[in-house]
Design goal:
Elements: E1 3-9, E2 15-21, H1 31-43, H2 47-59, H3 67-79, H4 83-95, H5 103-114, H6 119-131, H7 139-152
Antiparallel strand pairs: 1-2
Length: 155
């Protein structure tokens, strides 16, 4: 692979996945050609390429930043069952980062990832339930999810 995944925090509870080029890039391909190749694979339905291309668009690595387009690729990957993409799309919806904020819809994607064991999504969904943030307040369900996520966390 020609990328390294690096996570950095942009919110106390949300993490964005970044793509950084490595020195392993073939010398005969430019960044532009590599990005075009990733986009073609993403457009053909390759989930990993969708995530990479979404991150490239989100951060503007080698191309113009386009958060709205990035959100579409995260959604497509989520719709194909990718847990991290469900979380990312939920975070983008929650923050309204490049698209209109929709906390209810965000909760749907956080729950989708949380139901598959994604710890950050469990936390975010439980917090939304606890506070009634975009969804109905349900402290009992929130508490149950917090307990599950704390038992699942590896320290």
């Amino acid at each position: 692979t020609n990328t390294i995944i690096d996570e950095s925090s942009f919110d106390e509870t949300v993490t964005i996945t970044k793509i950084k080029p490595t020195n392993e890039q073939p010398q005969n391909k430019s960044n532009e050609e590599m990005i075009d190749e990733i986009k073609k694979k993403a457009d053909l339905g390759d989930i990993e390429s969708m995530k990479y291309y979404a991150s490239i668009l989100y951060h503007g690595y080698g191309i113009e930043m386009n958060k709205e387009e990035s959100s579409k690729y995260y959604k497509r990957a989520s719709d194909k069952g990718d847990v991290q993409s469900s979380f990312m799309y939920g975070a983008i919806l929650y923050l309204g980062d490049g698209i209109k904020s929709n906390k209810y819809k965000s909760s749907v994607y956080f729950k989708l990832a949380a139901d598959k064991g994604h710890i950050e999504s469990m936390y975010k969904y439980a917090k939304m339930l606890q506070e009634g943030d975009g969804i109905g307040k349900n402290r009992k369900k929130s508490s149950r999810i917090f307990q599950t996520s704390s038992r699942s966390r590896t320290y």
